[in-house]
Recover the amino acids of this structure.
């Protein structure tokens, strides 16, 4: 497990911490499946919030960096979220059927691992190559408004 998590590391503090949170939320969901339906829906709602926050943050980072693969990457997010919202509506209507439990415990974690490996790791590499900044220098922290000290 530790080894596989290392393969999923982007070396990007925000994105890595958000990915870890998504896996924690998925573990929370799995723990609720034997309990009352309201608990499952609450855990899935927390997962949905974390997903929306994460995907938006990642897309903003891609836009700001003018990442060349951003259109394809975003469409992978959109396809996943469309599927997620569809399944969440089904969960609301039918409760945690075996098919929905399998989706929550297997398909979403599988998608996440696949997506991180195939889409996010290359983004992490792009970002790390693009910003070889010396310690203590932040983007935009240069001379304000183009004014230079004499
Ligand atoms: Fe992504």
């Amino acid at each position: 497990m530790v080894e596989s998590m290392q393969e999923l590391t982007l070396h990007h503090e925000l994105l890595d911490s958000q990915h870890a949170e998504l896996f924690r939320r998925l573990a929370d969901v799995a723990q609720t499946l034997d309990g009352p339906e309201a608990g499952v829906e609450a855990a899935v709602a927390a997962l949905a919030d974390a997903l929306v926050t994460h995907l938006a943050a990642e897309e903003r980072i891609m836009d700001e960096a003018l990442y060349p693969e951003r259109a394809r990457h975003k469409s992978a997010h959109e396809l996943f979220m469309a599927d997620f919202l569809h399944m969440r509506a089904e969960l609301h209507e039918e409760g945690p059927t075996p098919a929905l439990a399998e989706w929550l415990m297997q398909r979403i974690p599988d998608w996440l691992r696949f997506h991180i490996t195939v889409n996010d790791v290359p983004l992490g590499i792009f970002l790390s190559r693009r910003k070889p900044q010396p310690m203590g220098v932040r983007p935009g922290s240069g001379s304000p408004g183009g004014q230079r000290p004499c």
Observations:
- The chain has a mean pLDDT of 88.
